[in-house]
Amino acid sequence: MNLERMPNEDKLNLCRKYYLGGFALLPFLWLVNVVWFFKEAFMKPVYTEQALLKTYVKRSAIGLLFWVAVLTTWITIFQHFRAEWGEVADYLSFTIPLGIP
Q1: Could you say which DSSP state residue 64 is in?
Q2: What's the CA gap between 54 and 33, in Å, rounded?
Q3: pLDDT: is 62 or 96 the higher one?
């Protein structure tokens, strides 16, 4: 997608949609939002929609960092205690490793 060809109102509308879509447990949309609109929000000359665009980009980055922290914490805890949790961990696992825990 070429953001250079879009009007500023459409850029703001698209950025807002990706920001709100991230709340549907889709943090990848926040990543896309930050990557696509960072230059537009922080490096372009000032225009009227830019203030809201900056807000959405900042909030998307914060939400993305939050999800990265939560998922990293969960993965670390699960990997560390998987063998101790027994059957419960087996039900949570997609693949069950073979061998002695």
Answers
A1: H
A2: 11
A3: 62
pLDDT score of 12: 95
Output the pTM of the full model: 0.84
pLDDT digits (tens, 9 = 90+) for 38-93: 999 999 999 999 999 999 999 999 999 999 999 999 999 999 998 899 889 888 88
CA Rg, the chain, in Å? 20
Long-range contacts of range 36-43, CB-CB < 8 Å, 24 or more positions apart?
Answer: 36/1, 36/3, 37/3, 37/11, 40/3, 40/11
Q: Whole-angstrom Cα distance, residue 23 to residue 90?
A: 29
Measured CA to CA, the distance from residue 85 to residue 35 in angstroms comes to 39
How far separated are the first and last CA of the chain, in Å rounded?
49
Q: Which amino acid is at 9?
A: E
Q: Domain residue spans in the chain?
A: 3-92
Give the residue among 17, 22, 24 at the shortest CA–CA distance from 65: 22
